[in-house]
UniProtKB/TrEMBL annotation:
Disordered: annotated span: 1-23
Record-annotated Metallo-beta-lactamase domain positions: 95-165
CDD domains named in the record: DHPS-like_MBL-fold
Protein's name according to its UniProt entry: MBL fold metallo-hydrolase
Taxonomy, superkingdom: Bacteria
One Pfam family hit: Lactamase_B
Native source species: Kribbella ginsengisoli
């Protein structure tokens, strides 16, 4: 449960990254790649006025081909869909060979596939699916993906606790979250691969962290309102133990880390990735950091202090990061921070 007190500069200093004693029990030999492209298929925001630069290609309004009778031509232009969810297409290149993974699928059955269509991305060309965790705003688009793939077998890597029943309490009673069904996924053609431990995908060039070590003293996880069903009763579920991240080693640059919600805490995630791979340098951090809302606002200051010390060249927080954290990160890391938006492609190239 998160402490509701305000973080102080001293708290931030005491919470700065520090080495974890010892080496990983099973160190990962993560092969460097020459290029990585991460396309945000679904995020909480879409901004058609963002401009592209050498690091990111933005998507604006599309052609005026959507039927709308109130216009003289009978058509209008639309942008991409934004919703409270996250999905990203990850493309890695080693030499001349490119491979693709889908990381999460967004909230609704339609947003991810609709945005992929508008971006002219053929989802049948992906080589596998990774789920960051079992929350429904990262898995709802699997229904739309299954419709595109048909009965073709598609490997899906996930943590075995994604099937956990969960609920959120609130003064009005709250609600039980939709729970993933293993039977339904396998029935739709997904080849479900459950892993608690780290996994190497795409011939050793992509690392899925598995369960993440919790080593910071400020990333406490979800508040008491987040609960899981044990089979006999509802209990506080602070850890969301199925939370995992995707890690790529960009040759000559360092680690590129993609999170879904970052429930383990982004500093915990980055330290875990460094320890697993023995790569100290963090080049880029992209995805949700779950720093939104009163329960997480005390975590913002020490998190930003830790990220400032790690000095990534790119940080593009999205989804559940929250506006207070976004403003703080933008002020602390103005050269690295970039606003996230559905339809953005981050292109990172080795040196």
């Amino acid at each position: 449960m998160c402490d509701s007190t305000n973080a102080t500069p001293r708290d931030a200093a005491e919470s700065a990254p520090r080495p974890v004693e010892g080496e990983a029990v099973d160190p990962i030999s993560l092969l460097p790649v020459d290029e990585i492209r991460i396309t945000t298929l679904v995020d909480n925001a879409f901004d058609a006025l963002l401009t592209s630069d050498q690091r990111a290609t933005r998507t604006g309004f599309g052609p005026a081909d959507t039927p709308a009778g109130q216009f003289e031509t009978g058509h209008t232009s639309v942008g991409l869909m934004a919703e409270h969810g996250f999905s990203a297409l990850v493309t890695v290149r080693r030499g001349e060979r490119e491979t693709r993974l889908l990381f999460d699928a967004g909230l609704s059955p339609t947003a991810m596939v609709s945005n992929a269509d508008r971006l002219e991305i053929d989802l049948t060309t992906i080589h596998g699916v990774v789920l960051s965790h079992g929350h429904f705003d990262h898995a709802g688009g699997l229904a739309g993906l299954a419709g595109r793939l048909g009965r073709n077998k598609m490997p899906m890597v996930l943590h075995p606790e994604v099937w956990t029943r969960r609920r959120l309490l609130a003064p009005d009673g709250g609600y039980e979250m939709p729970t993933l069904s293993r039977r339904a996924l396998t029935g739709e053609g997904f080849d479900v691969i459950e892993r608690r431990q780290p996994s190497l995908l795409l011939n050793g060039s992509v690392l899925i962290t598995g369960e993440i070590d919790r080593t910071t003293d400020f990333e406490h996880g979800m508040p008491a309102q987040h609960q899981a069903w044990t089979g006999a009763e509802w209990r506080h579920d602070p850890l969301v133990i199925d939370d995992q991240a995707l890690v790529v080693h960009l040759r000559g640059q360092g680690l590129v880390v993609l999170t879904g919600c970052g429930h383990a805490g982004v500093v915990n995630i980055l330290r875990h990735a460094q320890r697993l791979t023995s790569v100290d340098r963090v080049h880029a951090v992209i995805g949700g950091l779950h720093l939104s809302g009163p329960a997480f606002e005390p975590v913002i200051a020490p998190t930003v202090a830790a990220l400032t010390e790690l000095a990534p060249q790119l940080i593009a927080p999205g989804h559940c990061t929250g506006w207070r954290a976004q403003h703080t990160l933008a002020a602390a890391l103005p050269d690295a921070w970039m606003p996230s938006s559905s339809g953005t492609t981050y292109r990172l190239i080795s040196t």
